[in-house]
Write a structure and sequence with these properties.
alpha/beta; five-stranded mixed beta sheet; about 40% helix
C-alpha cells in the first residue's frame, strides 16, 4: 500500500516540476511551443507592422514579412522604399520603442528609431537595408 502512495507523490512532483518549467519559459519570454518547434504565440500582440524593401533584391520584403508572420507578427503591408539604407531599421511610428526593439530582435538585429507619423496606419515600419539576411538554412522563395 505504501508503494502506491509513493508513486502518487512522485507523479504529483513531476506535474509540479513541469508547471515550474512552463512558468519559467513564459517568464523568460519563450513558450512551450519553442520546445517542440511549433509556432509561438504573437510576439507583438496588437502591434501592426509594414515591411519595406530598401534594397535591390527583388522580393526581400515579402520574404521578411513571411518570416515575421511565422513568428506571430501582424504584417499588414509589404512594399518597396525609395530609400536605400545600409542597415536595416525599425521605425517606430506610434507607441513605445519597446515594440521596436522586440521587432529588431525578431529580425536578427536592426537599428531602432522613433519617427512618428500619424497618417500611417501602422505602429512600426521595417526598412530592410543592404545588411539584411534571411536566417541560416532559410531558402529564398
Amino acid at each position: 500500500m505504501e508503494f502506491a502512495g509513493t508513486r502518487r507523490v512522485a507523479a504529483i512532483a513531476v506535474v509540479a516540476l513541469a508547471g515550474v518549467v512552463a512558468a519559467a519559459l513564459v517568464w523568460r519570454g519563450a513558450g512551450a511551443a519553442d520546445l517542440v518547434g511549433a509556432q509561438a504565440p504573437a510576439a507583438l500582440p496588437g502591434i501592426v507592422i509594414e515591411v519595406r524593401n530598401g534594397t535591390s533584391r527583388s522580393g526581400l520584403a515579402r520574404q521578411a514579412a513571411r518570416l515575421l508572420r511565422e513568428r506571430g507578427v501582424d504584417v499588414i503591408f509589404v512594399g518597396t522604399s525609395s530609400a536605400r539604407p545600409d542597415s536595416t531599421t525599425v521605425l517606430v511610428r506610434r507607441g513605445s520603442v519597446v515594440g521596436g526593439h522586440e521587432l529588431a530582435r525578431l529580425l536578427g538585429g536592426a537599428r531602432v528609431r522613433s519617427e512618428p507619423d500619424s497618417l500611417l496606419r501602422v505602429d512600426l515600419t521595417v526598412l530592410l537595408g543592404a545588411d539584411f539576411r534571411l536566417p541560416k538554412g532559410r531558402l529564398p522563395l
